[in-house]
Design a protein that fits this description.
The protein is mainly α. It is 72% helix and 0% strand. The protein has helices spanning 16-27, 30-46, 58-73, 79-107, 111-116, 123-139, 144-160, 169-189, 192-200, 208-219, 234-254, 263-268, 270-291, 295-313, 316-333. It is globular.
Amino acid sequence: VSGEGCHGELCRSKYPADAMDNIYSKNQIFLFDNLKGLAIFLIFLHHSPADILAEPFLMVMMPVFAFVSGYSMKGVLKISAFENLFVLYLLIHIFALPFGIFASVKYGWNIPNLFFAKAGISWYILALFIWAGVLPVFMAGKYPVALSFAASIFANLALSEIPHSRSDIFYAMTFHIAAYFPYFVAGASVSWESVIKFRLSKLRYIFIPFAVAGFFLCGSGIIDTRPFSANISKFKIVLYALGALGSLLFLAGFCPGYKIKFLTKFGQRSMNIYVAHVAIIVLSMRCISLLAHSDILIFCSAVAVAFLCCVALSSDLFTGVLNNAILRIRRLVFKGN
């Protein structure tokens, strides 16, 4: 599985392990693979004991995914792509169900604990369904990106006024879906030619201070707009939106556009990693905590596990296994499609 279930035109190949490399090389968009590869590795770290390394980049990790998803999904929306997304949604919950049962036993039996305790990451699959559905409405306007930013900021300002608790998983999912929608629209609005033009222009240097400031503010904890943050405010919601856009443009302007060992494949197979990483983190970190007796050793082990798991989950072997599982579940659920 490369990208969002099926990548590019949404279904370039049933088994993209080799075909995807050729397509990406031909179209010279290793840039997007590298961006996603960096983002998925940071997300893995963020969900592990080594999350301090990812903290400065919280502002831009998911905007990168949303932007590349929008670029990939524009133009051609096949039914098979939505079927694949549905199957990926099921797989995330299959991986997470044992941990949901554990959470329900420990904290009480309820539907959110059972199905979402370790599957909160499934919000992104739901987001792709919703974003793709409303995208034509925004693209019909003259300034779709500006309109989507206005809608996103308004939605999250309204959400911030709604009383909620840290256990309200559905609130968090709604918050994320609204927050990252503008970057999806931005990806759908941009052409590859405009990306190249931007990377060759001096305009990209303007966004260096945006990125430096954004990484500092997130890394220091001054800005933390996660749904249950204690210091969230209306001003910080707006500041986050602007900072994330500036940081994304910085990465788009300066991230290497050539094939990089490991990183490029992490990006091409990013959904492999996304689907399985939380379950692997829970299991591996439990083992590490039993074997390691110092914070430094746990931290170093978490970084090593994150890298090795990304390598394994982006391998041709795991890709083939996951693709076979997706095809079999698709045939079962959608009657032979």
